[in-house]
Amino acid sequence: MVKRFPASALIGGGFILLLILVFMLLPLAIVAAASVTAGSFLTFPPQGFSLRWYGEVLASTAYLGAARTSLILATAVTASSVVIGTAAAIALHRRVLPGTSVLAALFLSPLVLPTIIFGIGLLIVASIYFGGPSLVALWVGHTVITVPYIVRTVAAVLSDADPQIEEAARTMGARPLQRLWFVVLPQARAGIIAGGFFAFNVSFDEAVVALFLRSPGVETLPMRIYGQLEFSPTPAVAAVSTLMILLTIVLIVAIERFLGLRRVAG
Amino acid sequence: MPHSLRPAERGAGAFGESILLIGPGAALLIGAFLFPVGQILVLSIVPPEEGLSIWTNFARFFEDDYYLRVAWRTFRLSVIITLVTAMIGFPLAYVVARTPRVVGYTLLLLTVLPLMTSVVVRTFGWIIALGRGGPVADLLSLAGLGARDATLLHTETGIVIAMVQVLLPFMTLTTLGVISTIHPHLEEASRTMGAGFYRTLRHVVLPLSVPGLVSGSLLVFALSISSFVTPNLVGGVRLPVMAGAIYQQATSTLDWNFAAAQSTLLLAAVLGLLIPYLALTRRRHG
């Protein structure tokens, strides 16, 4: 019997892992640390401890307005992409339509196409045909890039569900809408909820499409942070960023509870 | 996606129902995804003045030293970023695959967390970390690699460091998908036949992981050449990359046709990378 991992591999591997984890979490930790500085400038390590910059953010109409826009946008995007994505996932799951695999590829393609290309295309279309970018254009754009997440999570849950139950409902005389409402949607519930949290998170954090569709009076939090970073960011930007990290952690925990990240990632 | 056909559901009613279910999504993707991307292709061949060749916008790109330098920088940085990501991503994926479930799972969660935070927030962290007096610059000066007052902001090294962190999860997840299909018995067989741990890693695990590393590299390279938020903010105006240049032209100078031509070139490169990537990953799943 040989030892599975030699001591050098365990120690070396552990060390490398630790380095990778520090590397991965470093930027987030630094932002959080810089946000609680008592000083007037962005420094790391922070000078003293105070929550004054959080107070500053909560008193700033610019940040509150951007947060409001982001919340409204992310909520609207979640609603539209949950409805559209769930319906599409059910249809794709049934494999009744000809060319289902082509359709499935179409529904997942916004995940792989770089958002910069989609962003410029959307800007061009919004400007030529709809009189310029707007919050509505951003809503449509975010719905396109979040629908694939719902399709994936719902399809993953449905492929584990028992198809016999719907069959049983059919033979017992349930009509299509009844089967959908009382059998398929409850079966897909975990995927719909997890996908909804995903969609909210993606829309709330999205910067690329938002920057392309920049229009007067429409500013989301990532757009505002990007704008600040182009000039000279204050600790207030760190405070807002930390709040956004916390929101992401909450959403990840929620997704984890409903579905398990491994299934979404793999 | 499931691969089983369930004949009981293939009636005429099921067909109409499926059309209704997929209709809104299909309309959205055709109207708000395929159409905008198609518009880029159309605009890219519209010349700035009537009567000029449809290749005018492309010729402008290839005849201007500035844009060729930007494209070359984008390519060079993306190659480096991809190689570094593969070198870090492989051991990480191996450990996640071979440690007890709880440990591997926690590792995966900690790698995915940065992936799910906003790219502007992650980049902001790197701006502080790489800037003057930041921990990375301090570490380098401690190791004797830089001046006391050094900054990695506005350097290509800085871009690479920040981009590797942003893209590592993609490499790890893709490689992990392949490594977790390698049966541990293969490693045990190699070990009982007398090969050491590292020899087994080099001659058994690594060759079997190549499909994962290749598809991970294609994905990371494609994402890397099309990123602009991180390179723009870390590299600044002195080190423009292709996606950053496109963003400038589309939003500031409003030179859409030229921006569309560059986007078309970028799109061609990305598709050239993603089609083999999709073929590789599909064969694995199917």
Sheet-strand content of chain B, in percent, reads under 5%
Distance between the termini of chain B: 10 Å
CATH third-level topology of chain A = MetI-like fold
Helix content of chain A: over 70%
Shape of chain A: globular
Order of helices and strands of chain A: HHHHHHHHHHHH
What are the main properties of this structure?
heterodimer; A: 266 residues; mainly alpha; MetI-like fold; B: 286 residues; 12 helices; globular
Secondary structure topology:
The complex is a heterodimer of chains A (about 270) and B (about 290).
Chain A: H1 7-35, H2 52-58, H3 61-94, H4 100-112, H5 115-129, H6 135-160, H7 163-171, H8 176-205, H9 208-212, H10 221-230, H11 235-258, H12 261-265
Chain B: H1 12-44, H2 56-63, H3 65-98, H4 101-116, H5 119-130, H6 135-142, H7 156-179, H8 184-192, H9 197-225, H10 229-235, H11 242-253, H12 256-285
Describe this entry's structure for a reader.
The complex is a heterodimer of chains A (266) and B (286). By secondary structure, chain A is mainly α. Chain A has a single domain (61-265), classed as MetI-like fold (Orthogonal Bundle). In chain A, 78% of the residues lie in helices and 0% in strands. Chain B starts with 11 loop residues before the first helix and ends with a helix. Chain B has a domain at 59-120 and 156-285: MetI-like (MetI-like fold, Orthogonal Bundle), CATH 1.10.3720. In chain B, helix 4 (101-116) crosses helix 7 and helix 5 (119-130) packs parallel to helix 10. Chain B is mainly α and 286 residues long. Chains A and B meet through helix 1, helix 3, helix 4, helix 5 and helix 6 of A and helix 1, helix 3, helix 4, helix 5 and helix 7 of B.
Summed up, what is this model?
Chain A is built from twelve helices and no strands. Chain A has helices at 7-35, 52-58, 61-94, 100-112, 115-129, 135-160, 163-171, 176-205, 208-212, 221-230, 235-258, 261-265.
